[in-house]
Amino acid sequence: MTKEQQVYKQLDKVYDPELDQPLTELGFIDHTKIHDDQVEVVFRLPTYWCSPNFAFIMAEDIRTCVSRLEWVREVKVNLIDHCASDEINQGVSKGKRFSESTSQFGASDGDLDELRRTFQIKAFYAREEKLIKHLLAAGWSNEAILAMTLEQLHELPLSEEGSGMREGYLEKKAQLHHSGVQAFTTPEGDALTLEGFSDYLLGAKRTRLSMEFNGHYCRGLLEARYDLEATGTEMS
Predict the structure, then answer these.
(1) Which SUPFAM superfamilies does UniProt cross-reference here (predicted)?
(2) Cα separations (Å) of 61 from 15, 28, 221, 232?
């Protein structure tokens, strides 16, 4: 695997916090430059006015993920065509906190941490609903799904698609620091009830569809802004 391939493999792990989709799939990564042990990642967003909070989270995550490569000694993050490009690029490259980098936008580090958690919860709902929907289509009953333990979920033979859903869902459970044994819970780690299961799934589906719609909309804006080839996506 070339150095560039290794960098892009790491960038596949960087998600838009609001959309819960990889920056590489969204088309947000413009290009990379690699010189020996130095990496520059150039990324772009759908509009000039995209939230500086979101942009900073993405820039910070880019730097963190690429820095995990053993041969990388320096990562330069370069956000282009954005109202806060200079502040974000300088702040992230120097390892500064959000409040130090973009004080003129009036948000604190606490606000950014809270924002991250809000998006983690939304992503949890979306990933959980997709996995449960997959299990229901495979013939699992509501009762069996609610009774399933994490160990059983880990051992469940699934298709490649289903395995990907499981991996993504368990990743969010880990981020939210769930410690119980139940496979499917609320974002807070509380048990789900059979009586409220249908309403819970409906709410989770609405969250997922909203995120998917926003992702489709952002792709369209990016394609129009940079005259890119359209990529068709479907929601279900």
Answers:
(1) Fe-S cluster assembly (FSCA) domain-like
(2) 8, 13, 23, 27
End-to-end CA, the chain: 35
**CA angle centred on 178, ends 173 and 179, rounded to 5°:** 140
Which of the listed CATH numbers 3.30.300.130, 2.170.120.20, 2.60.40.420, 3.90.1700.10 matches domain 3-107? Answer: 3.30.300.130
pTM of the model: 0.92
Nearest to 60 by CA among 7, 15, 117: 15
Q: Are 71 and 116 in contact (CB under 8 A)?
A: no
CB 44 within 8 A of CB 59: no
Instruction: For residue 229, give the amino acid letter.
Output: E
pLDDT tens, position by position, 4-58: 999 999 999 999 999 999 999 999 999 999 999 999 999 999 999 999 999 999 9
Enumerate the domain spans of the chain. 3-107, 120-223
Rg over CA atoms, the chain: 19
